[in-house]
Design a protein that fits this description.
2 helices
Length: about 70
């Protein structure tokens, strides 16, 4: 029978003893979500209707920004 000590273990443990670092798990989740977002954006850009919708929303946003700047100057 062998006894395992935390000193002998090469894996880091958190204070709760679960073996995971909470900060690293959050970073891993953020990386995962970013990859999904990137995939969805590429997929939407490949779709003709998605591309039109994206360009239309962008044009409306740019038009509104120009309107606000022009009204502020006058």
């Amino acid at each position: 029978m062998t006894i395992q000590n935390d000193i002998d273990s090469s894996e880091p443990h958190d204070q709760n003893g679960t073996g995971q670092w909470k900060g690293l798990a959050e970073i891993d989740q953020a990386i995962h979500e970013n990859r999904l977002t990137e995939y969805r954006m590429k997929k939407a850009w490949a779709d003709p209707w998605g591309k039109r919708l994206f360009l239309m929303i962008g044009a409306i946003f740019i038009g509104f920004a120009i309107f606000v700047v022009v009204q502020d100057v006058l």
